[in-house]
Design a protein that fits this description.
The complex is a heterodimer of chains A (about 180) and B (about 240). With about 180 residues, chain A is an alpha/beta fold. Chain A contains 8 helices and 6 strands; from the N terminus they run H-E-H-H-E-E-H-E-H-E-H-E-H-H. In chain A, helix 3 (about 35-40) packs parallel to helix 7. With about 240 residues, chain B is of the alpha/beta class. A 7-stranded parallel β-sheet of chain B has the order 3-2-1-4-5-6-7, with helices on both faces. Chain B has helices at about 15-40, 65-70, 95-110, 110-115, 130-155, 165-180, 200-205, 220-225, and strands spanning about 55-60, 85-90, 115-120, 155-160, 185-190, 215, 230. In chain B, about 45% of the residues lie in helices and about 15% in strands. Chain B has 2 domains: about 15-40; about 50-230, 3-Layer(aba) Sandwich (Rossmann fold). Classes of the chains: A alpha/beta (about 180), B alpha/beta (about 240). The interface of A and B includes residues 121, 123, 127, 161 and 178 of A. Chain B: It comes from Coffea arabica. Chain B: Its main location: endoplasmic reticulum. Chain B: It holds the Pfam family Alg14. Chain B: Belongs to the ALG14 family.
């Protein structure tokens, strides 16, 4: 029993998510030897990849011979639990994934999918990276980002508030404020 | 051959009359449109009764619905009721999420406090990747469907935050304003994912001045679009 607890305590999972999209280049980049070795060097023990609609399936691994334990799945109705138990999240640039992760105050690397047309998603990732709430990368720069990242430099994201909009709507429509 | 009428008469032929009528009619419409646009920036007069306002809520895939739910949670439910949720016919999740939300409100407070809700689907003008030629036909169908829904609902307030499905609905609401059929307050909240550029929906509503109020979540957009209201991050 004690051993299992210790296992849980020493377990540091990197959770990769692509949401409902197809983002093979991210999955491939994470599945490279160099990225996996770098993550292992940094003290992570498990790599869990949510692949979405992608066609590239990473090889699972039990993590013997001093390497990451790798597992993957396609979809889940809610990734909240996976996010909660992760020590590092690598995500596509969807705003839902991003804010769900930031709300849980997890270290986050956002990878922008350059194959998408009209990539407005990169604006959000870049802005939040500028504000030091997360790291922003492309599939080709993922290894460098992982190697260089200093989690201590991240600033926690303070959740926003929709109340100002409600106030504005109420005053515009002549409703009393609560 | 000699003409009995040597002088040149300015005769008002029927076609000139029609032309004048058309010009006059168009001018009246333009004046009406300008008046509507001017009135759109004016708040609702405070002396009106504080009755609840029927509200149309346009849902869109993924982040749009999540952001809309986030906003709805802070609104006074009994001011914005009855609520009509509309999502694209091909969007399976959004109406479900809205139903879950409404049910959770009903569990906390009765219908009196929380108001009522209806859920409907609308045909999409264009699917992602659809050819532009067939898009003309599907857009016309979507417009007709939007018109049908708007005639049925005639909301007092429209809340939307991005999906293209809101454009036909807002356009028809604007036409209803011009024709005096119903005054719908159109509120558009640009997505948190839009930092430096407005979405196409927002751009249309902004340029054509069809929204009563357009909200943006990042300061860069406020500096670019002065008539937008900066409200900070909602999420």
């Amino acid at each position: 029993m004690a051993e299992a607890d210790e296992d849980l305590k020493s377990r540091r999972t990197v959770f990769v998510t692509v949401g409902t999209t197809c983002f093979d280049s991210l999955v491939r980049a994470v599945d490279t030897q160099e990225v996996k070795e770098e993550l292992f060097k940094k003290g992570y023990t498990h790599l869990l990849i949510q692949m979405g609609r992608g066609s590239y399936i990473p090889a699972k691994s039990t993590g013997e011979n001093g390497s990451l334990e790798v597992d993957c799945f396609t979809f889940s109705s809610s990734i909240a639990d996976y996010l909660r138990s992760a020590s590092l999240v690598i995500s596509h640039a969807g705003s839902g994934s991003i804010f769900e992760t930031l709300r849980l105050q997890k270290p986050l690397i956002v990878v922008v999918n350059e194959d998408l047309m009209d990539n407005h998603q990169s604006e959000l990732a870049e802005e939040l990276a500028e504000r030091k709430h997360l790291f922003c990368a492309r599939p080709q720069t993922l290894y460098q980002t992982v190697a260089d990242m200093d989690l201590g430099s991240l600033i926690p994201y303070q959740p926003g508030d929709a109340a100002p909009v409600a106030k504005l709507l109420n005053s515009f429509l002549g409703f009393p404020d609560d | 051959m000699e003409n009995s009428n040597n002088h040149y008469c300015l005769s008002i032929t029927p076609s000139s009359l029609e032309l004048l009528s058309i010009i006059g009619f168009i001018t009246l419409i333009l004046i009406r449109v300008l008046y509507i646009i001017h009135r759109s920036s004016q708040p609702r007069s405070a002396s009106s009764q504080q009755k609840p306002l029927s509200t149309l809520i346009v849902l869109g895939s993924g982040g749009h619905t999540a952001e809309m739910i986030n906003l709805l949670n802070v609104l006074q439910k009994n001011s914005f009721t009855p609520r009509y949720y509309i999502a694209a016919a091909t969007d399976n999740m959004s109406l479900q999420k809205a139903q879950v939300l409404e049910n959770s409100w009903l569990n906390e407070g009765g219908v009196e406090e929380v108001g009522s809700a209806k859920f409907m689907q609308i045909y999409r003008s264009r699917e992602v990747g659809q050819s532009y030629i067939t898009s003309v036909g599907t857009t016309l169908i979507a417009l007709a469907h939007a018109l049908w829904l708007m005639i049925k609902i005639r909301p007092h307030v429209i809340l939307c935050n991005g999906p293209g499905t809101c454009i036909p609905l807002c356009a028809i609401a604007f036409i209803f304003k011009i024709l005096g059929i119903r005054w719908s307050y159109i509120f558009y909240v640009e997505s948190i994912a839009r930092v430096r550029r407005l979405s196409l929906s927002a751009l249309l509503l902004y340029k054509l001045r069809m929204a009563d109020q357009l909200f943006v979540q990042w300061p860069q957009l406020k500096s670019k679009y002065h008539r937008a209201h900066y409200v900070g991050r909602l999420m």
